[in-house]
Task: inverse folding
């Protein structure tokens, strides 16, 4: 009995629509995050991450609606991040149906937010998302990695490993570790980064950034990731969640298989009622 | 067959929407409320819970949930506790070294898990004891857990059908801990069936089957 390695598709959502070209012929509306979430659920995703990249904060209610509608039809854990600035934002998202809320820039600007959110809602729903990169010339940190903001364009000089450790001390129950060096390269996860963070934190660690082929997932897990997150390889249909799980299982790693036992009676039927 | 009417006790704890929708999906009519009379009158009651034991107990007492649960159980009316909603059914919880009194329906203490990675977050397997009405047919399935505390010692007789003893399911994360209990009208799971995909929906459907 060992907890399974989680395979997590991540959807970037802008004003209620999935961004980055998603191309699935079996979907009526592949830009609808709710439809995509249901599809990934059917495919065996263990969890989903929605990242709200809506520029204007006045449009946040759109995301709440997306979360609400997703929670109506998808019964796996849902993490929502992006634009979360205050404890009240946690409350709104959790009430809409999110299970976890991820904090990134807001936690850097106001680390106490981690403490107050954890105190009120519990560490289990606080994810600290860290965009890390190797220090460029002129910047030095003990680990050699620094935290970035603005999608990796701006360095902060903050040691990424120290920040992960501090974040968990303050109450984060999980770390979503994005490698800005690996992101978009499709050359595999950033194993050195995963390793140094794993050595310092004992909360679950989600590896993110760099997944490009089926061979990339096992090394991330063997280096210490508890979960593997990917976006474009899934969205473009290059890999399926199932294929990733098969690769993990072939390496002897525990995964959640498709359900084989008794199924709930409504599982393949349309949702009952119209409430 | 008439649809069972379920009330989810709303005492300010986290995401109730998922539990509501999951129960509706498997055929229940669900109300989310903190009203004492409604909670007493419901066909079955769900006690949710996320976060800290002490905060949940304060919230439960704040809506007289302790009285509701005692009276319901005295009358044999079904109650389902989920996650911290299961933990508070035990005598007490120990978090950060301080003890907090629970509802005391079962003897036992909720203590920190001893494992290299905490919280225990993700899909894990559980034992399926014979005689289980909610887990039958779900052997080998994984359920979604997220918690750092658990009951590692069950202090009553378990799994002895001849004595109608509680049916106890176990899971392991660093140590063995109680994953689910079926004890007459009182049923509880440490994992989140409402977040456990088809396996969780099957469990909830089976639970609804026991209360009709």
Result:
């Amino acid at each position: 009995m060992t907890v399974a390695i989680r395979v997590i598709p991540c959807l970037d959502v802008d004003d209620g629509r999935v961004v980055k070209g998603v191309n699935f012929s079996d979907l009526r509306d592949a830009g609808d995050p709710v439809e995509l979430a249901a599809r990934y659920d059917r495919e065996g995703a263990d969890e989903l991450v929605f990242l709200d990249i809506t520029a204007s904060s006045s449009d946040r209610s759109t995301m709440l609606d997306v979360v609400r509608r997703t929670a109506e039809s998808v019964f796996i854990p849902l993490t929502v991040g992006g634009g979360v600035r205050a404890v009240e934002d946690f409350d709104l998202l959790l009430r809409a149906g999110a299970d976890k809320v991820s904090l990134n820039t807001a936690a850097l600007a106001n680390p106490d937010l981690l403490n107050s959110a954890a105190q009120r809602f519990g560490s289990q729903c606080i994810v600290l998302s860290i965009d890390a990169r190797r220090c460029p010339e002129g910047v030095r940190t003990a680990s050699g990695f620094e935290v970035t903001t603005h999608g990796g364009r701006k360095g902060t000089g903050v040691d990424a490993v120290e920040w992960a450790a501090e974040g968990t001390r303050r109450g984060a129950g999980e770390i979503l570790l994005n490698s800005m060096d690996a992101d978009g390269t499709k050359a595999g996860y950033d194993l050195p980064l995963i390793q140094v963070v794993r050595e310092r934190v004992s909360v679950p660690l989600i590896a993110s950034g760099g997944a490009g082929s089926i061979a990339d997932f096992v090394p991330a897990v063997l280096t210490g990731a508890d979960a593997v997150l990917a976006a474009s390889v899934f969205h473009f249909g290059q890999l399926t969640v199932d294929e990733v799980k098969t690769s993990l299982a072939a390496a002897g790693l525990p995964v959640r298989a498709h359900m084989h036992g008794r199924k709930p009676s409504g599982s393949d039927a349309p949702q009952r009622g119209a409430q | 067959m008439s649809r069972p009417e379920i009330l989810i006790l709303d005492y300010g704890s986290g995401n109730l929407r998922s539990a509501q929708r999951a129960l509706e999906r498997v055929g229940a009519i669900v109300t989310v409320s903190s009203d004492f009379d409604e909670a007493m009158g419901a066909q079955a009651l769900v006690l949710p819970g996320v976060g800290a034991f002490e905060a949940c107990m304060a919230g439960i007492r704040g809506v007289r949930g302790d009285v509701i649960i005692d009276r319901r159980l005295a009358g044999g009316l079904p109650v389902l506790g989920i996650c911290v909603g299961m933990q508070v059914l035990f005598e007490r919880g120990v978090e950060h070294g301080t003890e907090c009194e629970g509802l005391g329906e079962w003897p036992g203490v909720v203590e920190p898990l001893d494992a290299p990675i905490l919280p225990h977050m993700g899909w894990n397997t559980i034992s399926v004891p014979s005689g289980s009405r909610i887990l039958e047919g779900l052997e080998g399935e994984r359920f979604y857990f997220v918690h750092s505390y658990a009951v590692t010692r069950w202090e009553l007789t378990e799994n002895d059908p001849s004595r109608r003893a509680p049916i106890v399911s176990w899971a392991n994360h660093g140590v063995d801990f109680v994953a689910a209990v079926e004890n007459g009208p009182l049923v509880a799971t440490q994992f989140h069936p409402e977040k456990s995909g088809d396996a969780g929906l099957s469990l909830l459907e089976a639970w609804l089957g026991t209360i009709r």
Q: What stands out?
A: The CA atoms of residues 108 and 192 of chain B lie 21 Å apart. Residues 5-211 of chain B form a domain with the Rossmann fold fold (CATH 3.40.50.880). Chain B touches chain A through 53 residues (CB under 8 Å).
